[in-house]
Design brief:
This protein is mainly alpha-helical. Helices cover 84% and strands 0% of the residues. Helix 1 packs antiparallel against helix 2, helix 1 packs antiparallel against helix 4 and helix 2 runs antiparallel to helix 3. The longest helix is centred in the N-terminal third of the chain and has 70 residues.
């Protein structure tokens, strides 16, 4: 082999090696760009969902406060009944908007369950105003309890969707045996 042939052979091997290294570097760079783009898209999606869930949570808490106040009041005014009606409308509108953007079935099921409970509470407040039903009757207590359960289901579904989180525990009213068991469990942890 002549010196010229050896130099050409070395140059070809070097060029081929540079090409392989360049291709590997290009592939690695492309892969990194793809991962970064996916992470940014997931972060933007997470941010949008967390804001939507926060909006639903605010509407849910405002409705619960108003419905709870209506259940406690001895005389239900037209203003309070209208406030409950308007807050139910807000809650239903936020849920309808979310139903167009959220694909997670457990979240949708929990939200629709809560909206149905809210509708039952809204209807009971309206019936109470029209039919002069007593405050804090057994039906209203059951509806408030069902709404509380539905609220917990929504919070759990939101948390699971956003964080893949641990299950939430429902806090019991003071004096109940469930609350004492929960306190004992927390003390041992």
């Amino acid at each position: 082999m002549t010196e010229t042939q050896a130099a050409l052979y070395a140059a070809a091997v070097g060029a081929r090696s540079a090409l392989v290294v360049g291709c590997i570097a290009g592939w690695a760079a492309l892969r990194q760009v793809t991962k970064t783009a996916e992470a940014q898209r997931e972060q933007a999606d997470w941010q949008l969902r967390s804001e939507d869930y926060a909006n639903f949570g605010r509407a849910m808490f405002r409705f619960r406060a108003s419905a709870g106040h209506a259940a406690e009041s001895s005389q239900l005014s037209a203003d309070l009944a209208n406030e409950v009606r308007a807050l139910y409308g807000d809650l239903a509108n936020v849920a309808a908007t979310l139903s167009m953007r959220i694909a997670a079935d457990p979240v949708m099921d929990a939200m629709m369950g809560l909206v149905n409970c809210a509708y039952a509470l809204h209807s009971r407040v309206t019936d109470r105003r029209q039919l002069y039903l007593p405050s804090r009757d057994a039906a209203m207590d059951r509806l408030l309890e069902q709404f509380e359960d539905a609220e917990l289901a929504v919070r759990k579904a939101f948390r699971d969707d956003l964080w893949g989180g641990k299950p939430l525990r429902r806090s019991r009213r003071l004096g109940s045996s469930g609350n004492q068991r929960w306190l004992n469990t927390r003390a041992h942890q």
